[in-house]
């Protein structure tokens, strides 16, 4: 089959792109998109997405983890459910596509089925997760892990930068955290979980393809490193007598970069560093920095993390500072289900797209379902491979392809059920 016809092209794409622009305006910060889990903008996004789900023929509820769940009833006799989702939280100063694209696309595909009176032999639950980026609390994927039944209740004691716990934030949002275990889905009632997401990398663009089928998602370890040095006067303490926490952190950062660069399929990032109470004329006494280590091979990630731990301890000892490392989030590399992925590839082919297999360096809610519920993902080309930036862009034409692939995929799963 060839290129889509001009009349079918952008039927979904324009509508989805317009809704993403509408959703982009829902932000915690003026002039840029920042939407953190359980914040004021998250609440507004929940309301907007809920309204779109209702219009698409779904019944809607906010579950105990603040996931918005839109339920599209099965044809009579349908017993099982297909989950389709992504996230509506964002990084700071985000692009409008990361996460939001998958949620809006799923809603539009269900809306098209609803408008044409189509029911599938299974129910479709469209889920808008709220805790994928992990910007607010140290652990993340709490929404998807709640559905998978693998959320660790210790995460309820996680604190944000203002000292508010996850438990308190959920309660202020109207969510009862004691109900979290009851939200777990029974795997034998679930066909699988499917997520549409921008690629966040340059491969599809380089190969001239609108979409790609994901094979696996890299594993990740995230931690916060706290360095306790000795604060002092910048003018009076000789260099040889200092225990500068920031200088120690700088040496650690360079060592982390070198360790990650020493192996293929391994990346490590220090994305945030704070010097609480820092001043131009004060030797830093306390520093906190974040650490994010990823690999498609768990043994590479674990061995790198262990080496980084040793290096941090050695630098700290030599410089007479104390270092503490607290791991906040950890996920193994997760492999997509071949049967579901084959269906996605067949759906892409039906839509005239050569099915390209691609792996994911970015984390996704899908990985929370690893070894519990089969999952598959469809990536959408994004301009320049740019993501986690306001410059993120996916064209309406490519979004249209993704929506048609998803819609075709649902028909195929329906035909085989
Ligand atoms: C989420 O975007 C992540 O990969 O950190
Ligand atoms: Mn994402
Ligand atoms: Mn992201």
Fold blueprint:
Layout (H helix, E strand, L loop, with lengths): L10 H14 L15 H16 L3 E4 L5 E5 L8 E7 L12 H16 L7 E7 L12 H7 L17 H7 L17 E9 L4 H5 L3 E7 L1 E10 L3 E2 L11 H17 L4 E4 L3 E2 L7 E2 L2 E10 L2 H22 L2 E10 L2 E2 L2 H13 L6 E4 L14 E6 L15 H21 L1
Parallel strand pairs: 3-4, 3-5, 5-16, 6-15
Antiparallel strand pairs: 1-2, 2-4, 6-14, 6-16, 7-12, 7-13, 8-11, 9-12, 10-12
Helix pairs in contact: 1-3, 1-10, 2-3, 3-10, 7-8, 9-10
The site of glyoxylic acid has 3 residues, from loops.
Description:
- The chain is an alpha+beta fold and 417 residues long.
- It is built from ten helices and 16 strands.
- It has helices at 11-24, 40-55, 100-115, 142-148, 166-172, 203-207, 245-261, 298-319, 338-350, 396-416, and strands at 59-62, 68-72, 81-87, 123-129, 190-198, 211-217, 219-228, 232-233, 266-269, 273-274, 282-283, 286-295, 322-331, 334-335, 357-360, 375-380.
- The strands form three sheets. Strands 1, 2, 3, 4, 5, 6, 14, 15 and 16 form a nine-stranded mixed β-sheet that branches. Strands 7, 9, 10, 12 and 13 form a five-stranded antiparallel β-sheet that branches. A two-stranded antiparallel sheet has the order 8-11.
- Helix 3 (100-115) links the parallel strand 3 and strand 4.
- Helix 1 (11-24) crosses helix 3.
- The chain is elongated, with a radius of gyration of 23 Å.
- 48% of the residues are buried.
- It binds glyoxylic acid and manganese (II) ion (MN) (2 copies).
- Residues 87, 98-99, 132, 197, 364 line the site of one manganese (II) ion (MN).
């Amino acid at each position: 089959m060839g290129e889509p016809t001009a009349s079918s092209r952008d039927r979904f794409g324009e509508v989805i792109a317009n809704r993403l622009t509408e959703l982009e305006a829902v932000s915690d910060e003026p002039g840029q998109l920042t939407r953190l889990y359980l914040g004021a903008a998250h609440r507004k996004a929940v309301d907007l997405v809920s309204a779109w789900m209702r219009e698409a023929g779904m019944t809607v509820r906010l579950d105990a983890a603040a996931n918005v769940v839109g339920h599209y009833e099965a044809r009579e006799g349908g017993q099982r459910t297909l989950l389709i989702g992504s996230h509506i939280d964002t990084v700071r100063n985000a692009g409008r596509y990361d996460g939001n694209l998958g949620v809006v696309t799923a809603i539009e595909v269900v809306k098209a089925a609803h408008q044409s009176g189509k029911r599938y032999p299974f129910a479709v639950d469209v889920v808008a997760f709220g805790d994928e980026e992990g910007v607010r609390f140290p652990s993340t994927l709490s929404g998807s892990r709640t559905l998978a039944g693998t959320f660790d209740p210790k995460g309820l004691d996680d604190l944000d930068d203002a000292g508010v716990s996850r438990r308190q934030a959920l309660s202020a949002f109207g969510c009862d955290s004691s109900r979290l275990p009851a939200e777990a889905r029974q795997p034998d009632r679930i066909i699988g979980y499917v997520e549409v997401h921008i690629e966040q990398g340059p491969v599809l663009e380089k190969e001239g393809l609108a979409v790609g089928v994901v094979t696996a998602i890299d594993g990740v370890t995230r931690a916060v490193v706290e360095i306790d040095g000795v604060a002092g006067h910048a003018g009076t303490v000789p260099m040889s007598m200092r225990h500068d926490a920031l200088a120690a952190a700088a040496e650690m950062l360079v060592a982390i970069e070198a360790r990650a660069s020493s192996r293929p399929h391994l990346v490590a990032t220090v994305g945030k560093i704070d010097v609480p109470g820092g001043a131009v004329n004060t030797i830093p006494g306390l520093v906190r920095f974040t650490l994010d280590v990823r690999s498609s091979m768990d043994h590479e990630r674990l061995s790198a993390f262990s080496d980084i731990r040793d290096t941090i301890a050695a630098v700290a000892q030599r410089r007479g500072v104390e270092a503490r490392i607290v791991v906040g989030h950890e996920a193994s590399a997760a492999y997509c289900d071949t049967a579901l992925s084959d269906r996605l590839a067949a759906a892409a082919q039906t839509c005239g797209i050569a099915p390209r297999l691609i792996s994911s360096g970015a984390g996704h809610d899908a990985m929370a379902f690893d070894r519990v519920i089969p999952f598959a993902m469809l990536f959408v080309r994004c301009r320049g491979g740019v993501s986690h930036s306001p410059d993120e862009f996916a064209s309406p034409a490519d979004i249209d392809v993704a929506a048609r692939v998803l819609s075709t995929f649902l028909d195929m799963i329906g035909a085989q059920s």
